[in-house]
Amino acid sequence: MRLVPAAVPRPAAPAAPRRLGAVELVPGRVRAAVLSVAGRVLDRAEASYDAAGATPADIDAALAGAAGVFAGHDLQGIGVAAAGLVDPGAGLILEVNDVPALHGYPVTERLGALTGAGVRVEHRARLQVLGDRWFGAGRGRRTFASVSTGEVLGVGVLYDGEVMAPPGGRSGAHMTVSASGERCTCGARGCWKTVATTGWLRARARAAGLPAVGLDALVGSGDPLAGQVVDEYAHNLALGLVNVQQLFAPGLFILHGEAREGGERFRTVVEERLREAVAFTEAEQPRVLVGTAAVDDVALLGGAGLVLSHL
Ligand SMILES: [Zn+2]
After folding, report:
1. pLDDT, tens digit, for every residue of 224-281?
2. Are 115 and 155 within one domain?
3. Are 53 and 81 part of one and the same domain?
4. Which pLDDT does position 10 carry in this prediction?
5. Lower Cβ count inside 10 Å, N or C end of the chain?
6. Are residues 237 and 257 in the same domain?
7. What distance in angstroms lies between residue 255's CA and the mean position of ligand 1's atoms?
8. How far is the CA of 190 from the centre of ligand 1 (A)?
């Protein structure tokens, strides 16, 4: 962090450094954090609720509980990273699977009333690209992609300085990558999610008769069969990313979540697959980096990035 020398008089500057507020709202849980403008988490709080049985009043209570962390901080604003379908313009959560109380929930209005701060909301997977853009490996770039891996799969794309977030657009998990694949939770067949999330990896490792089923353990086992399963997983992840590269040529892909456990080999397999997909040599050769932010902080950094993006 760069420090301004205390002796230099800056009469126009505020007395205290202003902070960034971030909230992550997912089924069953609300997390809130106060961050410095450099993206350091200074304080955090969490509240839980019963996803299936909660009423909107229960959501209000959980939000108020977590938002207690903002008391006494001079916030530039609060960015909310929400699961499900959101309407950023109206500040609403439209729909979250298995959480009826969040259907049409006015999250920016409620949080604004609780804190007095300006509040914005965006979809969690899209938003994390702003965490990378302001605080991570995407700094200085106007176009790149940020990828959630593991239980939750999704891609956020920054294109020429703007987060691609068209109304009705999604984060990529339900792109069709196989014409006759497995049935997905959404009802369709062959979604990217059916072959490139933790559930697929566990099932594949079990079907192969491997004792270990987590990515970390498979990579560490040294078993050649486990290695094959890991490579297959990396190829499946690359399937969706190749489509993103073909359409938007982000050039840089920053992987968050489970991919960290895959180590250098996993990263290399994904990167090589992307490079094969670049048709002409004049284009930027795609690079894959693994994000260094703590997994729990990725969405919060995205929320803080949303605040900075709208100053
Ligand atoms: Zn699907």
Report:
1. 999 999 999 999 999 999 999 999 999 999 999 999 999 999 999 999 999 998 766 6
2. no
3. yes
4. 56
5. N
6. yes
7. 21
8. 7
Give the helix/strand (H/E) hosting 87.
Answer: strand 85-87
The domain tally of the chain equals: 2
Q: What are phi and psi of 119, to 5 degrees?
A: -125, 135
How remote is the CA of residue 150 from the centroid of ligand 1, in Å?
15
| CA-only gyration radius of the chain, Å | 20
Which CATH number does the domain housing residue 158 bear?
3.30.420.40
CA of 183 to the centre of ligand 1 (A): 8
- Predicted confidence (pLDDT) per residue in 28-37, tens digit: 999 999 999 9
Cα of 184 vs centre of ligand 1, distance in Å, is: 5
Question: Rounded distance, CA 311 to CA 302, Å?
Answer: 15
On whether both 106 and 155 belong to a single domain, the answer is: no
Question: What is the CA(203)–ligand 1 centre distance, in A?
Answer: 18
d(CA 209, CA 226): 10
Helix or strand or coil: residue 255?
A: strand
pLDDT digits (tens, 9 = 90+) for 269-307: 999 999 998 766 677 899 999 998 888 899 999 999 999
Rounded-to-10 torsion of CA 208, 241, 130, 292: 40
pLDDT-derived band of residue 15, with 50, 70 and 90 as boundaries? low
pLDDT at residue 17 greater than cutoff 80: no
